[in-house]
């Protein structure tokens, strides 16, 4: 029997959602605690927030969720930005600010998100990486409740969450924007769970589509509901006439596409089941209402179809509103930066789309790799960006330029593209003719999208400013642009020291209580391994079904990143109608190759690793 592991004390820069109170583990004794290590840029972390909500409601008198915010990007270290994110994403539990990743290291987290379950006596009883753990967590909580109620160590009652004051603004964390056919502005008012129409001044509210409460109900403008909608796409008139609606909305947290008839404001579901995609990659067309989606974040009309930035699974998808079909367009679901044929490319949380004036090129804001990518002639390329862990605010030649988590793009008539460089608070411009990047506006509040008006003005969605603003006249001219040689950053996580030569990779996975590995449709596990630079990994790259694998690391490459993707399929055990579950996680592990270092790399997908 392995020794019980005492949970490290919770310490950080400060707390949110506690009414100013600093919490300790002693304050939480008697409760089941889930420490959720997250960062607000990470789509998988946002999925886990959604998975935890029903558990928080069901087990409100025995469960306390503590969000431990351990940032990836420099901007995420800003306490004001963190407070904004906590409100934006409806985080209704205490959050500990962990800007230097101290708690992350204390709890041996290796991936965003990581969950650590602490029992009522203060011991860590389970650790799990990635998303898809809700059912297993519910079973574990039930077991812990029964055990500790019998022991007398479970204390029921209210938790320490204190809600903040409700703000009053016309918009709340708007996400995306399109200019309507009559010059009005259609905006996804994301934190208010609705789509609004503003006058051309960007301020006057003309109407709201949706009640403003989180939900997934079709109906009239006054009764329909959304959940954190983002991308908007106006259909060409001839397509809209056949489809029966004018506007497609990426209903992000509902994992749906919704259609809106602008004349009446009526909302209909046009794609998605409402379930999050957890399947295998295929290139087939599917009935749009029978296929699962995963956090669609932006939309664009390209190649005679709606292209979807499917942020949740690091892919682009397509949707045909006339045939009412949908399918995968680009990407393998591996989260990284790799160009090439669309079926083989790697993306990292694509979040913004725009089409060039001639219709040939689709621009993509690939947020987690801080990159601007493009699709042309069935191939994906990268214009700006260097990978998952390199970011900053640097202009000049595109090969050296750096962005920080861009969420939006806007194609200009001259062939260049504007970039909503979100975490730098800037609008940047990439010009393919010169292959240069410049800065055209700064000091913006998390710009998340851009749009061009018929008269040539540029509108900016300042998401954290809760407003739509216009770029100053002349900002796009050569005189108006500037060249910034700002900071260069790299995500600083303590590297894992590994020995050159043979290393054993062990992915640790224990099925949740009441579940077993499911091989009904083939092997229940899959592990994919690659490296950056590729030369780091002499042997062991590729895909296999074994959770343990022999790697060989080069003795001539001193550092790099091992990229590991693991998934495990489980089903309920010993029940008549067993439900199926898929657990998946991507790790990007900074590695330092050093003599005499470890020869085993353990990664916990689910379980409690004693090694």
TrEMBL record:
<protein>
    <submittedName>
        <fullName>Alkyl hydroperoxide reductase</fullName>
    </submittedName>
</protein>
<dbReference type="InterPro" id="IPR013766">
    <property type="entry name" value="Thioredoxin_domain"/>
</dbReference>
<dbReference type="InterPro" id="IPR001258">
    <property type="entry name" value="NHL_repeat"/>
</dbReference>
<dbReference type="InterPro" id="IPR036249">
    <property type="entry name" value="Thioredoxin-like_sf"/>
</dbReference>
<dbReference type="InterPro" id="IPR012336">
    <property type="entry name" value="Thioredoxin-like_fold"/>
</dbReference>
<dbReference type="Pfam" id="PF01436">
    <property type="entry name" value="NHL"/>
</dbReference>
<dbReference type="Pfam" id="PF13905">
    <property type="entry name" value="Thioredoxin_8"/>
</dbReference>
<dbReference type="InterPro" id="IPR045302">
    <property type="entry name" value="NHL2_NHL_rpt_dom"/>
</dbReference>
<feature type="domain" description="Thioredoxin">
    <location>
        <begin position="1"/>
        <end position="146"/>
    </location>
</feature>
<dbReference type="InterPro" id="IPR011042">
    <property type="entry name" value="6-blade_b-propeller_TolB-like"/>
</dbReference>
<keyword id="KW-0677">Repeat</keyword>
């Amino acid at each position: 029997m392995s020794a019980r592991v005492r949970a490290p004390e919770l310490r950080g820069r400060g707390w949110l959602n506690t009414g100013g109170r600093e919490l300790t583990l002693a304050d939480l004794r008697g409760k089941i605690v889930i420490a959720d290590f997250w960062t607000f840029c990470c789509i998988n972390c946002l999925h886990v927030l959604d998975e935890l909500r029903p558990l928080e409601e069901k087990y409100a008198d025995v469960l306390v969720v503590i969000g431990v915010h351990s940032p990836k990007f420099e901007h995420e270290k800003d306490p004001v930005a963190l407070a904004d994110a906590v409100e934006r994403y409806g985080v209704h539990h205490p959050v500990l600010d962990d800007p230097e990743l101290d708690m992350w290291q204390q709890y041996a987290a290796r991936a965003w998100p990581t969950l650590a379950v602490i029992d009522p006596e203060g011991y860590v009883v389970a650790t799990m990486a990635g998303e898809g753990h809700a059912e297993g967590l519910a079973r574990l909580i039930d077991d812990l409740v029964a055990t500790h109620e019998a022991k007398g160590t479970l204390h029921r009652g209210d938790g320490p969450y204190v809600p903040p004051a409700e703000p009053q603004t016309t918009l709340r964390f708007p996400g995306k924007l399109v200019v309507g056919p009559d010059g009005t502005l259609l905006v996804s008012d994301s934190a208010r769970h609705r789509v609004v129409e503003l006058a051309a001044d960007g301020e006057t509210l003309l109407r709201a589509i949706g009640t403003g409460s989180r939900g997934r109900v079709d109906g009239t403008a006054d009764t329909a509901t959304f959940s954190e909608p983002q991308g908007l796409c106006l259909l060409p008139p001839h397509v809209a006439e056949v489809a029966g609606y004018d506007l497609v909305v990426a209903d992000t947290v509902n994992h749906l596409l919704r259609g809106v008839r602008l004349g009446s404001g009526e909302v209909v579901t046009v794609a998605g089941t409402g379930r999050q995609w957890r399947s295998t990659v295929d290139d087939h067309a599917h009935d749009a209402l029978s296929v699962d989606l995963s956090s669609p974040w932006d939309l664009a009309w390209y190649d005679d179809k709606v292209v979807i930035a499917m942020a949740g699974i690091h892919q682009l998808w397509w949707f045909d509103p006339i045939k009412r079909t949908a399918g995968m367009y680009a990407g393998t679901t591996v989260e990284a930066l790799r160009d090439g044929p669309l079926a083989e490319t790697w993306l990292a949380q694509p979040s913004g789309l725009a089409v060039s004036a001639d219709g040939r090129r689709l621009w993509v804001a690939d947020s987690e790799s801080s990159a601007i990518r493009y699709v042309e002639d069935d191939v994906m390329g990268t214009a700006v960006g260097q990978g998952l862990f390199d970011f900053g605010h640097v202009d000049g030649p595109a090969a050296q330029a750096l962005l920080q988590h861009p969420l939006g793009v806007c194609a200009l008539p001259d062939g260049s593209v504007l970039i909503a460089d979100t975490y730098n608070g800037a609008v940047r411009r990439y010009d393919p003719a010169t292959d240069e990047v410049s800065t055209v506006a700064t000091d913006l509040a998390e710009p998340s999208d851009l749009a061009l008006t018929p008269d040539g003005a540029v509108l900016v969605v300042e998401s954290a400013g809760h407003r739509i603003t216009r770029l100053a006249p002349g900002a796009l001219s050569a005189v108006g642009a500037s060249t910034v040689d700002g900071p260069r950053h790299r995500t600083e996580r303590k590297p894992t020291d590994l020995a050159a030569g043979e290393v054993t990779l062990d992915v640790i996975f224990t099925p949740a209580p009441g579940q077993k590995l499911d091989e009904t449709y083939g092997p229940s596990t899959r592990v994919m391994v690659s490296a950056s630079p590729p030369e780091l990994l002499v042997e062991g790259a590729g895909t296999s079904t074994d959770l343990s694998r022999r790697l060989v690391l080069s003795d001539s490459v001193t550092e790099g990143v091992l990229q590991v993707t693991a998934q495990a399929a489980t089903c309920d055990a010993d029940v008549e109608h067993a439900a199926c579950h898929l657990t998946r996680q991507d790790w990007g592990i900074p590695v330092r190759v050093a003599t005499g270092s470890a020869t085993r790399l353990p990664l916990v997908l689910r379980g409690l690793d004693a090694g």
